[in-house]
Design a protein that fits this description.
163 residues, 8 helices
Amino acid sequence: MWREEPNEIGAKASARKIIKYFGITTPEQICVEDIAMALGVYVHEAPLKGAEARLTRKGKKGIIRLNENISFRKKRFAVSHELGHWERHAEISQMFYCTSEDLNGYNNSIPEIEANSFAGELLIPSMFVGDEISRNDPDISLIRGLRETFNTSLMVAAIRFVE
């Protein structure tokens, strides 16, 4: 039986556990494809209609099929999002098809919200930015700086800034 509310705290904790496990200490070390491979998930770019990414799981092995026609930054988020499903949702499905609406959080389904929370924390770990963000007033230049430092979209950087 599925929960009634998303566990965003648990999703972020799962991402922090991965950051710690792999000894990641700088933004440049966050290579989501390498993390995926180390977790038993192969990332394959190919044409994909109707979705930005798809996760297929068989036991302890998986494949993320990634739409080759999306930007590099969107690809990073899509892989991180699917890894969120990999880490958090083994019990609900063997295949996830994630559309751009799912990745942007518009679906409002519990698994999608959790996968987005996981992805945001994996790409912009709170332990890397907490002090800088809390010391400054909201400013678009800070959000743009996060986007550039962590190689994410402006939307991901803005959401993490607010969080």
